[in-house]
Amino acid sequence: MKLKFGMVGGGGGFIGDVHRHAAQMDDLAILVAGCFSRDMDKSRAFAEKWNVTDLSRIYPDYQTMAAAEAARTDGIDFVTIATPNDTHYPIAKCFLEHGIHIMCDKPLALDTAQGRELAQLAKEKDLLFGVTYTYTGYAMIRQAREMIDAGEIGRITCIQGEYPQEWLAVSLVSGSSEQATWRQDPARSGASGCCADIGTHVECLIAQMTGLHPKRVIARFDSIPSDIPLETNAQIMVEFDGGVPGMIWTSQIATGHETELNVRIFGEKGSIEWSHLRPWALRVTRVNQPPQTYTNNRDYLYPAAKALCRLPSGHIEGFYEAFGNLYRGFCTNLIAKKTGGDPGTFRYPTVEDGVRGIAFVEACLQSNANHNVWVNVDAR
Amino acid sequence: MKLKFGMVGGGGGFIGDVHRHAAQMDDLAILVAGCFSRDMDKSRAFAEKWNVTDLSRIYPDYQTMAAAEAARTDGIDFVTIATPNDTHYPIAKCFLEHGIHIMCDKPLALDTAQGRELAQLAKEKDLLFGVTYTYTGYAMIRQAREMIDAGEIGRITCIQGEYPQEWLAVSLVSGSSEQATWRQDPARSGASGCCADIGTHVECLIAQMTGLHPKRVIARFDSIPSDIPLETNAQIMVEFDGGVPGMIWTSQIATGHETELNVRIFGEKGSIEWSHLRPWALRVTRVNQPPQTYTNNRDYLYPAAKALCRLPSGHIEGFYEAFGNLYRGFCTNLIAKKTGGDPGTFRYPTVEDGVRGIAFVEACLQSNANHNVWVNVDAR
Amino acid sequence: MKLKFGMVGGGGGFIGDVHRHAAQMDDLAILVAGCFSRDMDKSRAFAEKWNVTDLSRIYPDYQTMAAAEAARTDGIDFVTIATPNDTHYPIAKCFLEHGIHIMCDKPLALDTAQGRELAQLAKEKDLLFGVTYTYTGYAMIRQAREMIDAGEIGRITCIQGEYPQEWLAVSLVSGSSEQATWRQDPARSGASGCCADIGTHVECLIAQMTGLHPKRVIARFDSIPSDIPLETNAQIMVEFDGGVPGMIWTSQIATGHETELNVRIFGEKGSIEWSHLRPWALRVTRVNQPPQTYTNNRDYLYPAAKALCRLPSGHIEGFYEAFGNLYRGFCTNLIAKKTGGDPGTFRYPTVEDGVRGIAFVEACLQSNANHNVWVNVDAR
Amino acid sequence: MKLKFGMVGGGGGFIGDVHRHAAQMDDLAILVAGCFSRDMDKSRAFAEKWNVTDLSRIYPDYQTMAAAEAARTDGIDFVTIATPNDTHYPIAKCFLEHGIHIMCDKPLALDTAQGRELAQLAKEKDLLFGVTYTYTGYAMIRQAREMIDAGEIGRITCIQGEYPQEWLAVSLVSGSSEQATWRQDPARSGASGCCADIGTHVECLIAQMTGLHPKRVIARFDSIPSDIPLETNAQIMVEFDGGVPGMIWTSQIATGHETELNVRIFGEKGSIEWSHLRPWALRVTRVNQPPQTYTNNRDYLYPAAKALCRLPSGHIEGFYEAFGNLYRGFCTNLIAKKTGGDPGTFRYPTVEDGVRGIAFVEACLQSNANHNVWVNVDAR
């Protein structure tokens, strides 16, 4: 079966196109409805561009869309939410109330109260709710998890994560500050800048790789340059489940680093390291042995990791394809739910992961505001 | 305008899906017809999967498809040929004769006679004819060309290219010899193995980066292991236009190298180096200066290179997206041709490039058969 | 002039040989006396091996050596102290009291009280006192400092340092725990393990590169595995002079990392990054420009950095040569002091740097013991 | 026992110091005599600098030195020849005739006739004769050989070597053409430039790693820029013993590459790759397995390779130390010869390797002069 889906937002930047390609990549879903922009003409132009042929399914607002699609016998199976951060919560709530499954950009919401309400609603309504933490879609992330679950590196002893970016420094110099504007606006982005925007990617990636979540944090936020409203540099000491020590650094002013998400996981028997600079590779070292480099789509991978690869090894799958793997996880689970079939091995981050992300940021904000003391992450 | 296209083949491997995604990636074309398999049931299944809704445009053979589509007022604008190598020539010829533009997998044909006939036919009929040398679609390849054309590295003095792969060694060990079977069958692949399959990628990539073509070659082919029919390792000394010296090595038994196409170009004022291990990067060195690493989608790139990037810098675009850039070049040129508009800066390798590739292989075969003497590349 | 020097210790491990080669590398000094071991026979054997011809200058203990050499008209100009950590203080004190200049292994002493006493004594006696923080001897560290002092990366905004090692994990697995034994013995190593042993290298390297020192720290120490006496993993949040935020991570159980000291320095106009994996290279990025890789002995380096290189660029100078540069700094300054000549541009870490290192560790210990609160580094 | 040695030359550049440090590094030899320069004052100044105390053993010319040292009962055990290339032959001949063992810079001589005469003479006189092909001294080169001899990568199928440098391009731009002058003077360097200077390093390194020697070659030499006398770029197709195909590229105008000697060896069961960019590492890949990175001084190395390491793994040993390993091989063998003891596992390239290098260059010159036909390497 092929799922039908709609999209809210996505007409304003590159991410709408990413969602569309990703959702349709493995022919598990087709875009049939949407409210791509507040401007109906623009929305219809996107419909034409994106092969949505029935223009009656292009809506002026998300409320109308949710109601109309819920009322159709051939209504959408799920909706993709690709709007600015501050609108995720009301839109998601609306579609949940109409019984429609959800794939939503991160952050899930602006605070944990909103997030938990959505999680609770999804549970009550028995609806799937995915959150698109892109990097978790890389095959090697799954390989890491399979290896760790199988005990290949033993008990985890230390975790180092980081996500330096340089775009804000570049924006300030080049004057192309469009992104800077909204990402640095507390009203639209929430109370945290860098930590919410990319620190949560590190937190979620570590969780997907290890199964471990932050239990408490010490965080220091800096606004660099100092006249910028939200933090652009965040340094976080983390204690993960089981008392495992870790550090996370994220920055938007780290000149020389474009999108450099790196995670290093150490265990009693070995280590596993992943870098977004070469996302198809995993550096694996057993104690007292030479480091090895595992790569995409090789026979020696765990089947659940190999299944995430579409191309022969050495042929690069990137951002779109990692995003596609999130949709593959969401869609195969949704189809299994609808058909009673086997959901298989594909996964996706859920609304619970979304809540954890917000709780992590809230604990960091609180620690930063209180002279960098330990603050528990309230991830109910 | 959005072009309509059909596909012949593509139902048997991963490459059909690559073509479909690549052609539709930038919303310049939509798949509406096809003969995806010789088995009509399979073909129809692919139609459904690939959102081709009018099943009357699924055809039992390419001849029927060419005739029928040419007869329709809303017939396809171009056809994609994604069949085994030995069938490219008759299929392309048939569609050209019906006045349909063409995007064809490499190699264009099995010998230069066939290739030249197709080139001549395309010229007579005034039809566009692209050949999908994937790697030429990476933005950094265009950046290299723009820099070289602007004289940034001065007159070219030396070119080193290589494309080691290991898949055949892996196949032999793991017993998964499906690809090995047809790629090592002279009847289906032609008289050359490794050189035709991947050596031509190096040759074409160098030509796209520099504008220089092989003038003559000394080639040595080895079948490793020795009981294999076609060469799996090819070492080639090349003299490019203007007497520029170069070397090309390609191998399918180079354990430790998955798909490692590397080109290094030296000039009197500097050098430019590209590796498929990090295709979004270009290593640029001016004489007596520190090496620099240029990357995708940065402001300092030439506009024609930057235009090939879809994602913020640091977000990885890979094989699908490079392939998409070939279609972007082909489609924008075709649309410009049809509308009389500006074709813009996007490019694609043409039937002439395809002929050059075959001529290169033929010269190598001849050199190898004649004790490795110099043989001119006949690239009329 | 060529300086005469003696050595205390050095007969028990590889470091004695390192000192000897390093001190003599540039023909500024010659070894003429020593107490290489507590066993006179061993000590004399080393004398023979190391070309010390006058065996009357081989001494049974350091006190005798200090007194005897001080009494000679041709006595040693300086002494190298290459003994276990817990003996540095009394030995250094003894030689200072006899008016002999000193090069001492790090750590300078076991606590700041001892360290300050030595610093004070050196000052009173007007004696040079170097501490061999090896990594600071690499030419690229000096290049970084020159660039930063010249304002090339603007005001510093963030500093990330780390020094993961794996040797302790390897020792535990392989059973070769000799080093583990003494490095994990509080009586011989002091109250801190990993932080004192290698964290101080990071602290000192950052200071040499930037001129900035830790003002306060939050530190978390972990003993991994848990039955080991001293910490083997240290995570430190640092506030440097001027409020610059930073993080330091050091570990001895970081499987896959042999000796991987990395420092990344970010400024308002660019960044400078150095890794011990390629110590002859410096990664330099100006905001909105491609990263560059500066390397040893190139004309574009600052003269003070280029002067530290002995071999043509591309020829690797490693640990011995970096160590040699410390002695080059110490000896040229000592010769200048003795001759009234120009000391030139070579530098070396001093007793003050040694005190700072101990103060840093003490602050970390205190923070770790107090629930990871901020503790000021008392670096008078 | 500690050997006594003298040096001819070495006062004019950095290489004299390299020899001295390397020969004395492991305390197997001590410099006691020399003719460091044709100017006796300069020679005596070097003696003082280099701790040669008996100035009566500083000689005005090599003939006098050979005669005098041969006549002494405590005369030198061996002589190091570190003079310009065109003088190696007469000097070596003279010392051999006086019964003195030899360590000589490469190239051994200017033609094979000279080289063979030296080899013959050494044999007749039963004298050790080493040639300092530096790169062969790296521990990982020995590890490669041990692995290959043990059959770890199976029968060798293909060898790729290269040695690009950029110094000549830099010299021409920066005007610092001192080296360029003599290296481009046929009277002093011989008939070949780049191939003799660095191509022989590749040839010898491959031989040391694999035991295979070039059987025949096709070579193309280019002088870039064209007004330079000797070739600065050499491209060579090689057939090694047993018909193994290979390619070698060397260049002195390869902008962006300082001293980048790389060798990749492929076998039926795996591959071994070494790069001078990280000489302490070896990339090892078994067919169908992830690549591994072996490093210096680890327990998993072969004992003969591990024995070549002096520092804990991760601490960089570079050019001096590799050079030191050649002397370690030469000296341990010479001591064993003198004492009748066990020579142990250390090795060094010999006069026969030196002859092979010249024969290789001569074959390349002949191929280049004859339209790039195959020419046998006459390595009797």
Oligomer: homotetramer
Give the integer mean of the pLDDT values of chain A: 95
Q: Helical residue percent of chain A?
A: 25-40%
**Widest sheet, order of strands of chain A:** 13-12-11-10-6-9-8-7-14
How far apart lie the N and C ends of chain A?
35 Å
Radius of gyration of chain A: 20 Å
What share of the residues of chain A does DSSP label as strand, in percent?
15-25%
Report the sheet with the most strands of chain A, covering strand number, pairing sense and barrel closure.
Answer: 9 strands, mixed
Chain pair forming the biggest interface: A-C, 44 and 44 residues
Counted by DSSP, the helix tally of chain A is: 13
How is this structure best described in words?
Four copies of one chain form a homotetramer. By secondary structure, the first copy, chain A, is α/β, with parallel strands linked by helices. In chain A, 38% of the residues lie in helices and 22% in strands. Chain A is built from 13 helices and 14 strands. Chain A has helices at 14-24, 40-49, 62-71, 88-97, 112-125, 139-149, 167-174, 178-183, 186-189, 194-210, 303-306, 319-339, 351-369, and strands spanning 3-9, 29-35, 78-82, 101-104, 129-131, 156-164, 214-222, 233-240, 244-251, 262-267, 270-275, 281-286, 292-295, 375-376. In chain A, the strands form two sheets. A nine-stranded mixed β-sheet of chain A has the order 13-12-11-10-6-9-8-7-14. A five-stranded parallel β-sheet of chain A has the order 2-1-3-4-5, sandwiched between helices. In chain A, helix 1 packs across helix 12 (319-339), helix 6 (139-149) packs across helix 10 (194-210) and helix 10 packs across helix 13. Chain A is globular. The two termini of chain A are 35 Å apart. The model of chain A has no long low-confidence stretch (mean pLDDT 95). Chains in contact: A-B, A-C, A-D, B-C, B-D, C-D. At the B-C interface, strand 13 of B face strand 13 of C.
